[in-house]
Design a protein that fits this description.
With about 130 residues, the protein is α+β, with helices and mostly antiparallel strands. Helices cover about 40% and strands about 30% of the residues. Strands 1-2-3-4-5 form a five-stranded mixed beta sheet, with helices on both faces. The two termini are about 20 Å apart.
């Protein structure tokens, strides 16, 4: 997988934050701590980056992504007791709307860190996934 090393590094940063802070804080606390950890690990990122959402080539609005790492990976954070399918669908939709091949959904709210790699199966880089799913 093309982005496995980078997503692995981001997940490692999130694991360090979760093992240090545990659960129970608001999302913004984890966001701040993750920014520090990613900086310590040499990752370039933008936090709370406003990204344009397109529909059929038309700009239909913007949404802020929690992190945009190495100009490649969208990272959406949650601080919930448990991730639901709705959150996964939301992250997948963001990848598609932003035209990104992959994103991460990370939840700091549980006793254990929860993370999901989410793929935009309509992105040219992910043609293999489409072939496997059909």
């Amino acid at each position: 997988m093309r982005h496995e090393e980078l997503t692995g590094k981001i997940i490692g940063c999130a694991m360090k934050v979760h093992s240090t802070l545990g659960s129970g804080f608001q999302e913004v606390i984890y966001q701040r701590a993750l920014a520090i950890e990613m900086e310590l690990q040499g990752l370039s990122f933008q936090r709370e980056m406003e990204m344009t959402i397109f529909y059929e080539g038309f700009d239909i609005g913007t949404r802020r992504v929690d992190f945009f790492v190495e100009d490649t990976i969208m990272v959406e954070l949650k601080a919930l007791a448990k991730l639901e399918d709705l959150h996964l669908s939301q992250a997948m939709n963001y990848c598609e709307a932003y035209g990104l091949p992959i994103g991460l959904l990370i939840n700091f709210g549980g006793r254990s860190l929860e993370f999901k790699r989410v793929y935009n199966i309509n992105h040219p880089e992910n043609r293999e996934y489409k072939r496997i799913q059909n």
